[in-house]
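Handout for the seminar on molecular recognition.
Each group receives one record of this type.
Step one: identify the two inputs.
Step two: read the structure output and locate the region that could contact iron/sulfur cluster.
Step three: write two sentences on what you found, then compare them with the reference statements printed after the record.
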Amino acid sequence: MAHQQVKFYQTGTLTVGNRLLDAENRTVQGTMDRSNSLDSGHRACQGCGEALGARYAIDTAMRATDNKLIACNATGCLEVFTTPYPETSWTIPWIHSLFGNAAAIGTGVAAAMKVKGREDVRVIAQGGDGGTTDIGFGCLSGMFERNDDVLYICYDNQGYMNTGVQRSSATPGGARTATTMPVGPEPGADFDKGKNVPLIAMAHEIPYVATASIDRLHDLEAKVKKAMSIRGARYIQIFVPCPLGWGSAPAQTVNLARLAVESGIYPLFEGENGEITSTTKIRRKVPVEDYLKPQRRFAHVLKNPAQLSAVQEIADRNIRKFGLLEE
Amino acid sequence: MLKQIEGSHGVAEAVALCRPEVICAYPITPQTHIVEDLGALVKSGKIENCEYINVESEFAALSVGIGSSAAGARTYTATASQGMLFMAEAVYNASGLGLPIVMTVGNRSIGAPINIWNDQSDSMSMRDAGWIQLFVEDNQQAVDMHIQAFKIAEALSLPVMVCMDGFILTHAIEGIDVPDQKQVDKFLPPFVPRQVLDPEDPVSIGAMVGPEAFTEVRYIAHKKQKEALDLIPQINEDFKQIFGRDSGGLISTTNTEDADTVVVTLGSVIGTIEEAIDEQDEKIGALTIRSFRPFPLEQIRSALKDAKRVVVFEKCFAVGIGGIVANNVRMAMSGTNIPVYEVIAGLGGRPITRKSLHKLFKDAVKDNLEDVTFMDLNKDVVDRELEREHKLIQAGSVAENILRDGGVVNAAKTT
Ligand SMILES: Cc1ncc(C[n+]2csc(CCOP(=O)(O)OP(=O)(O)O)c2C)c(N)n1
Ligand code: SF4
Ligand SMILES: [Mg+2]
């Protein structure tokens, strides 16, 4: 008889609802009095990493600000699946203006709070990777450079999902998207292109930058909480797998997020004022194949030794660069 | 108090008197002096309780303004020309969201070829964006209209553009009566937003609307602009009560009652036109459109009903068809048999001279005008360039060729 191997992997701080932790170490989501800022009933796909990430991030920010929070959303999946009028999943004040201006909207709201003497009300701007790393990049950099009192959260699902999965500057090499098809001698998205916005944010020397992943929500919550304890421009980029865009099973969302971190594909770190202050060590290193296999967008990469080793090389470089393995 | 100041400075002082809470600044000629002056007023503490934000683009200028206005702050910015186009997406968004932002446009042409001088193409490019657009004749009106603009915007929950001719007004120094703070406070109460981002009463702003309601939403935007046709003269009356000055409401007219020919125009050029009219003997009247959006169809129709002909004189045009203002005026005149001529003039800062106006008037009164006239167009240069283009596939830059042909550029370089 086949036995499923039990993995005591998800213990301690990786477990969101862990009642064995003492009260102050428990997550916001592990408590009954969470704000449900992004309420149920929205239209995200099954297993949507972005919905999960947003829910945890915003509830945490709400807790950290005593529920005095305003969110400014870029156009994209998160905006579309949460709010067709007259319905909304947001139980907090929320505004959507355009695709490329969420950071600037955040600046404006924060400025208004300042003149109104309501600096207790805090501001989050949020968008997908396209809205952040591409079209919203000018406004984002401006907001950073002025050190406006806004936390910007990028939900990184590595492509323009809302418009049907096209390549963004966050799409990884090899990935199939509707504009980087797996055809020709170099199938999928080009390697050696794209940009690392967390590091670019660091180069602005803003008070706080972090990357996070929805496989470790405790860590995600801690980073949001930390960000909300600081004034000025802050940036958190959350890795949020997208079953629809990646061709993965909805049940694999959290697992894929974990494999991205454990393979070195998605380094998790924090930085303050331009210096890296912490990195999340890999617990059990996995080969990139483990991460690629459950995703149809990489099916051709697995059959292409050159591409496969290019992906492994990216992971290894991250491990070296960020010191992701315990010595 | 009467002061001898630059138009831009007057506008900055007027905006300051309106107690703005957020000002977004980005430089573009000829609007720049306004935001520079406002920057100094905020930094020196003369404007209290105001966030002055040096943004990274016009798109950000208006986007920051959308955020601050939606969060309940009285918001101001200014732009021109390329800047207006760079913020285009946010221009539509601000009106769609019903945010009473006031923006000065220092009217300037749009490139290519890049050109910093005055015409009204920039404001006209956004004529359908849902903003109220008010064009001023002189710097006193520019000052007065900004104060009225905040009141109009906030009463309707709609954004307002105050359009003033670049350089001709923005950089002109003339005597301006700058109101005092007490008067302005009496006229303009604090801003009470229609809907606001507030944790105590959470709302979702800017969500998606499908075909089931989009037409109605857009129709109401149209309706609200029509309401402004009543509101703008009313607010002008209120203004007159307190400040003793009139900014003319929707349109203003000179001798239209007994004129055979009426020249219709927008902005500062009315000054030159009125002088030119006075210098000749024909019965010519003039009508200035202050409010281009909403467009006062009825008022224009009734002011022009006794004319034998109408000449629309405008500093902009829609490539491929002709005058923009003229098209709107024709709509006001539909059903009448009064001919409407279009004259395009002053593009990219070309001087509008009395001499040319006199010739134009002479032709007009004889009905000796084409449907569309480009005033002072150098027909020979144009013909030669068109000929070159027909002969040569790689004819080069039209703009450069015309300058060389006109002898403006050293002829030796052409060989
Ligand atoms: C100016 C502009 N260009 C393009 C679009 C179309 N558009 C809407 S959402 C979207 C994709 C969003 O991608 P991303 O920001 O990564 O968010 P995701 O949907 O992946 O969460 C695009 C291209 C738009 N709304 N506005
Ligand atoms: S397409 Fe992807 S990001 Fe968008 S709702 Fe579906 S799973 Fe979420
Ligand atoms: Mg995306």
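Reference statements: The two ends of chain A are 40 Å apart (CA to CA). DSSP finds twelve helices and eight strands in chain A.
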